[in-house]
């Protein structure tokens, strides 16, 4: 069961809505039971390095049991209605993280990371 999603989250209206819809389609009612945040809100889009950096952020979230924030959320789009960890990191139990990476030209990947026993 996923506890935290590190979203691709580029802060573009079309992209963020599409990712929100995809998360809700995959997880259905469970999508409102975990939090989602965007590393890009803090670092910008690192292009080819984004997936690697977001993987490290996801590992750190598991290790430290803290969901990193999506910063600069002032007026959240009503169509993006998930818990985006607005502006402040949140301590919480995290056993499984999903990290999304969508690349140029359709090179897309999702990784699920689990906490070591």
Automatic annotation (TrEMBL):
Q: What Gene3D superfamilies does the database record attribute to this sequence?
A: 3.40.47.10
Residue ranges annotated for the Ketosynthase family 3 (KS3) domain, each copy included: 1-115
Query: GO CC annotations?
Result: cytosol
Q: Which InterPro entries match?
A: Beta-ketoacyl_synthase, Ketoacyl_synth_C, PKS_Beta-ketoAc_synthase_dom, Thiolase-like
Superkingdom of the source species:
Bacteria
Keywords (alphabetical) are:
Transferase
What processes in GO biological process is this protein linked to? fatty acid biosynthetic process
Q: Which GO terms describe its molecular function?
A: 3-oxoacyl-[acyl-carrier-protein] synthase activity
Q: Which PANTHER family match?
A: 3-OXOACYL-[ACYL-CARRIER-PROTEIN] SYNTHASE, MITOCHONDRIAL (PTHR11712:SF336), POLYKETIDE SYNTHASE-RELATED (PTHR11712)
- What's the protein called, per UniProt? Beta-ketoacyl-[acyl-carrier-protein] synthase II
Give the source species: Schlesneria paludicola
């Amino acid at each position: 069961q996923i506890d935290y999603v590190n979203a691709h989250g580029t802060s573009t209206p079309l992209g963020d809505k599409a990712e929100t819809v995809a998360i809700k389609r995959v997880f259905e009612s469970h999508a409102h039971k975990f939090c989602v945040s965007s590393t890009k809100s803090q670092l910008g889009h690192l292009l080819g390095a984004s997936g690697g950096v977001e993987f490290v952020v996801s590992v750190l979230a598991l290790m430290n049991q803290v969901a990193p924030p999506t910063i600069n959320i002032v007026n959240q789009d009503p169509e993006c209605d998930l818990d985006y960890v607005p502006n402040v990191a949140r301590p919480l139990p995290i056993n499984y993280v999903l990290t999304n990476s969508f690349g140029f030209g359709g090179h897309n990947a999702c990784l699920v990371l689990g906490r070591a026993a």
